[in-house]
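Hello,

Our lab assistant flagged a job as stuck in the queue for most of the afternoon. It eventually completed. Since we weren't sure the result was trustworthy after the delay, we are filing this so someone can double-check. Below is the sequence as submitted and the structure that was eventually returned. Let us know if re-running is recommended.
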Amino acid sequence: GLLLGGVLKGQELITSARVRSLADQNAAVQAAYYGFIDRYRQVPGDWSATASAQVIPGVTTGGNGNGRLDVTEDLNRDGRLDPNGLAIPAGGNNAVIVAPSADLDLALRGLVFGAWGTAGQRCTTTRRLIVHHSVRERLLDALDRARRSLPVGSPFDAGTLVGPLIDAQAFDAMERALARARADGGVVAGGARKLADRFPNAWYAEPALVNMPAQTDVVRDETFAPILYVIGYDSIEEAIALNNDVPQGLSSSIFSRDLQEAERFLSAGGSDCGIANVNLGTSGAEIGGAFGGDK
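-- returned structure --
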């Protein structure tokens, strides 16, 4: 993501003043900084006109190939938008590898929270499950049972685990992605709009689980919605290649009891993401500190 209030990237603290200084020297930074402020005031939440998939060295901390950035506002005390406090978390298209030796109960918990918690709208949300063929059907069955049991509803209601999407455009993007997945041969469970009668102006969606025949373009194009794509693999080399075969590169994870396999995933020849976890999901990075990275 891009943090205009200050980003700790490597050893350098990039403050809002430093970003403005970079903007005066670099056209790409200028477009990202001044352009998004002007655009935000005109069309809140829509960055398609100003946000590119270009990585700006020293400024971005996550893969941002999704073409749409979700904006977190820090307002100053009189309630006005403070450009010096804007945080823009960019995409990750994060994957979890589940190996044959994995503790499937542990993996299930990490996947359910990572994929469908916060309605799939975190930069570290799990978008892709890369699972060994030997445990694929068993894990798919468990995920679908868990998916159907998740309470979707207002965040103000006790017991809610999946809240609304940010707006109608986000729900439309989810529907388009699921349609593309079906066209590619994917088997889609879930994804329907929920609670429209109770909340006609809000956009709640049933979490979606998509069993894909391969990692197609729709899987590589990140959608900020509660969609988990499932792809099978045979060898750890294939799994790592699938993990890395996307434009984004924020967070990644492997569930495995095989020490050599886990070390391979963490090595220079393994995951190319800024975060690489073992037996822990992709979601849950501490936003108050430095985390992430880019390809």
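-- support follow-up --
The delay was a queue issue, not a problem with the job. The result is valid. The CA atoms of residues 1 and 122 lie 11 Å apart. The first strand starts at residue 2 and ends at 3.
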